[in-house]
Write a structure and sequence with these properties.
7-stranded parallel sheet; 253 residues
Length: 253
């Protein structure tokens, strides 16, 4: 597979977890990377981990729900590195809220971050990608909502399914400009936030995974890297499940 050297990638939600795993893989594969996150200090520290000189990785503080921040992110990437080849729209939140306790404000917040955030990131990067006649956009959806369900995550599942509707229609609109849009659907990933869900959740989820382990953030990163490759030029509007086989069994036996 062709190196990503000379290409520029933006990863949202990149200060930690899956986003940092994606950014690390893309940097290792040669891309210059812009790590964007609400936690500006965390994004800058993460960028330093990937490239201490700052020559090939920078961190920027953004609120993905704010159109002005997304425009600034794209402008900073293009201004610093000259292009935008890859967008990994990964930023997302996943609070556990039982259906009976779910408030309108909760739904509005998660929709804003997970769905509006992805849409605004795409819109911000499109002008530069269109000018280039080239772009690879990869959304981080989830098996939750898109393939399976989980109690306490109706609002989260709704956003992750919505992202796929956004992806499919958007893919049709940008295809003629040489831009592809696809999505990865992770299962359970070993991130700092995952540990907060408690030992019983961990036990149940691990028992459901045929490969017998949770994903590392880099496992998702390699799936993004594939969809971001020049060689993936004929793949658009598609999903790639990264779950260790979790959705395969017909029963829980």
């Amino acid at each position: 597979m062709e190196s990503l050297r000379g290409q520029v990638a933006i990863v949202t939600g990149a200060a930690r977890g899956i986003g940092l795993g994606i950014a690390g893989v893309l940097r290792d594969e040669g891309a210059d990377v812009v790590l964007a996150d609400l936690d500006e200090r965390g994004a800058r520290l993460a960028a330093t981990q990937l490239c201490s000189s700052g020559e090939h990785a920078i961190g920027v503080g953004v609120d993905v729900t704010a159109q002005s921040d997304m425009a600034r992110m794209a402008a900073e990437a293009a201004g610093r590195f000259g292009r935008i080849d890859i967008l990994a729209a990964n930023a997302g939140i996943y609070p556990h809220i039982p259906l009976a306790d779910l408030q309108v404000a909760d739904l509005d917040e998660i929709m804003a971050v997970n769905v509006r955030g992805a849409l605004l990131a795409i819109q911000a990067c499109l002008p530069q990608m269109t000018t280039q006649g080239y772009g690879r956009i990869v959304l981080t959806s989830s098996i939750t909502g898109s393939v399976v369900g989980q109690p306490g995550y109706a609002h989260y599942g709704a956003t992750k399914a919505a992202m796929l509707g956004l992806m499919r229609s958007a893919a049709l609109e940008v295809a003629s400009a040489g831009i592809t849009i696809n999505a990865v659907l992770p299962g359970n990933v070993q991130t700092p936030g995952f540990a907060d869900l408690g030992p019983e959740h961990t036990r149940r989820m691990l028992a459901a995974i045929p490969l017998g382990r949770f994903a590392e953030p880099e496992d998702v990163g390699w799936a993004v890297r594939f969809l971001a490759a020049r060689e993936a030029r004929y793949i658009t509007g598609q999903t790639l499940i990264v779950d260790g086989g979790q959705v395969l069994p017909e029963s829980g036996e």
